[in-house]
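Dear support,

I submitted the protein below through the web form. The confirmation email said the job was done, but the results page showed an empty box. After a refresh the structure appeared. I'm attaching both so you can tell me whether what I see now is the final result or a partial one.
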Amino acid sequence: MKRRTFIHALNLGIATATLHRGNGLGNPINLFSARSSLLKELEYHEIRDIKFSTVQLNYPRLVGKNARLDIHGTGPNVEICVIKTNQGASGWASLRGPRKEAESVAEELLGKKISDVFNVDQGVLANRYLPFDLALHDLAGVILEKPVYALLGHETPILTDYYSGMIYFDDLEPTNNPGGIERILEECRYDYEVGYRQFKLKIGRGLKWMSFENGLRRDIDVTNAVANAFPDCKILVDGNNGFSVDQFIQYLEGIPQVDLFWIEEPFHETVGDYTVLKDYLTSKGRRTLLADGEADPDPELLNVLFEKRLLNVHITDIEGLGFTNWRNLMPELEQMGVRASPHAWGSLLKTHYTCHLAAGMGNTVTIEGVTSTSDDVDFSGYKVVKGQLVPPKSPGFGMPLLKKV
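What the results page shows now:
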């Protein structure tokens, strides 16, 4: 793929609409007829009302520190919008970006046909409407009586592995009586019962919370303990840019028997440091995926790292980049031989949006799980089966809003 094409997509450019393969609609004539029918249905609906609110998500436990940030808490209060049409259809989702930005363009959307702002084959048709990106996908699915993954190309969802992204430095909490490594193992046992068969362990305790030597030792001991306790599970690690490349290699030297599934953001990405890490892994015969692009992504640098095969997995946030932009970027990543796993930490809503992207387009190596409950949202349609996240067949994203807005 040409560098400027990748950068254009990553910088929120809206690509020209294309028909995705594998939608099960048959030959081009039937495909054209079916898509024309979908377009007419969307033309029939005009945006009548947009309301804003929040939904409260609750984690099953207090989530502690990572290498750079203090305690993450017990669950977010997520900004959402609800879009209703003149025909009585309603869709909702979390906002992309701040509410103030969404409110500034909401009035402009009133009275517009859904087909003026959204296309089944492409997504949102203009950058300024991206705050409503996810809600418009949900609404289109409701109108067309299809799950979002089917709008993307697959009537039968592509299933993807599912990892727990909730294993932080909880061994250090509470500060007056820390739980130690046994606390981490307890959390992994809980997550195993949820259905996860992949655990992502936060590492980098020696950056802020412990001396480097003690933090490194604890990172190593935690990784070895989880790998030994759950031999049927895959281990991912995330350093949140908390190491230098030499320090991270010291960590790897301490876990010679652990076959890591992936390494995420061990240090701030540079060509030089990732070349050193890749050469080290190759010299040791260790095959692990290298994932980056979450924190302050530099599109041009990421492109270079992917082209040089120094990175394998693109992980920019599902809302940060935007659902429409992820749709347009995914075929480009496939051409480069790069896998996807959009960052979803913080919100189970983002996990489920990623699930539909993966189910409809594939090329996703695993999905970040953020186990949550809510009195405001019905999550019951999603199931974890054999370590994979299975989306519901219900229209849109399949998460009924229980809260009156």
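Response: this is the final, complete result; the empty box was a page-load delay. Residues 160 and 388 are 5 Å apart (CA to CA).
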